[in-house]
Structures are given as structure tokens and as C-alpha cells.
Amino acid sequence: MKILVTGGAGFIGSAVVRHIISNTQDSVINVDELTYAGNLESLISISNNSRYTFEQVDICDRVELGRVFVQHQPDAVMHLAAESHVDRSITGPSDFIQTNIVGTYTLLEAARHYWMQLNAERKAAFRFHHISTDEVYGDLPYQDEQESQVVNQELPLCTETTSYAPRSPYSASKASSDHLVRAWLRTYGFPMIITK
């Protein structure tokens, strides 16, 4: 498979890229704008691998994304590119809206237009994997120090049926992107997976 990974120079994205190259026979097209969070040094161990390609592209750039899809012909997308960190979203929410919402929309449209041109077999096999965050569900109940020392006490876990309750610009922008991805499935039949 050829997997297009957005945000592949980030902390989690680079671990995903290294894992794919080191543990599978799949190829990776790493699409990353290289903002504050991108670090190509984390990919030095696989940077010369023939199955690895790097494209410095902003996910909000529809023209460049279209070129990347046409040129590399991926079989799947793993969308990890995102502005992250709650504190950063409080002091500068506009970057989060632009990347996490507009960027996801732009990537969805580029991927959908590419997917629509595939032959029936490749179209049926294609997947758009959107990586989200558990923060879309809001805060876990507060536990004070005394409660946390109680043996075997477990915090309630979020599940796929937990209601969305974002509490910061970061979590709200990620919740918005989740809703866009779900809407592309429902409206266009676009094959997607969301993980948190």
C-alpha cells in the first residue's frame, strides 16, 4: 500500500511513519508543512528509504494537495496534521480553526475528488483515517489527591457513544473536524475511519 500521512513530521506522526517503514512493506508519502511541531530529525532513520517520500505542503493548500494525490496515487490517508495543545489554542485560536477545520475540509475535498477518479477496485479499498482526540468528549471528573489514592478506583472512560463536549478552542476544532469527516461519509459515501 501507499499511505499518505499528514503531519508525519510531528511527534505522533513521525512515530507512525517510522513504524510503517520499519515494520511493513508499505510506502509512505509524508505531507507536513513543518510548522513549530514538525521535526524532520525524528525521521532521519528512515529518510533514505526508497518507500518514504516527503512533501512539504500545507493541508490548506488545495492545489498542492491535488498535485500530491495525482503524483503519488495513495491507497489510504492517515490524517494526523493538526494544531494541538489546549494552552496554545487559548492564546491563539485562529491557527486551530484554520488548520484543524479548514485544513481537514481541504484535505477531505482533495481526497474525495481523487477517490472519485479511482477504478472500482481501488475505490472500494481506499480509506481516509482521521486521527482525533479524546478531548472532544470534554473533561473527566476531577479527582482530588485523597480520592486518587483509593485502590482500584477507576475514572469513567469515554466511549464512542459519549456525547461530544469540547471545552477549549483546541477540542472544539477537533470536534468540528470529526463532524466534517462523518458528514463526508454520510453525504458522499466517502470511506472514512475516525480514531481517538
Walkthrough of the structure:
Helix content is 43%, strand content 14%. The model has no long low-confidence stretch (mean pLDDT 92). Strands 3-2-1-4-5-6 form a six-stranded parallel sheet, sandwiched between helices. β1, α1 and β2 (27-31) form a beta-alpha-beta unit. It has 196 residues and is of the alpha/beta class. α2 (62-72) packs across α4 (93-116) and α4 runs parallel beside α7 (169-188). It contains seven helices and six strands.
Low-confidence stretches: none
Beta-strand residue fraction: 5-15%
Give the averaged pLDDT, no decimals: 92
User: Radius of gyration from the CA trace?
Assistant: 18 Å
Number of strands: 6
Q: Roughly how many Å apart are the termini?
A: 23 Å
Please give the oligomerization state of what you see: single chain
Q: Give me the secondary-structure category.
A: alpha/beta
Strand order of the largest sheet: 3-2-1-4-5-6
Q: Could you describe the largest sheet, including whether it forms a barrel? A: 6 strands, parallel
**SSE pattern, N- to C-terminal:** EHEEHEHHHEHHE
Fraction of helical residues: 40-55%
- Morphology: globular
Instruction: Output the number of helix runs.
Output: 7
Task: Summarize the model shown.
The chain is α/β, with parallel strands linked by helices and 196 residues long. The chain has 7 helices and 6 strands.
Keywords:
196 residues, alpha/beta, 6 strands, 43% helix, 14% strand
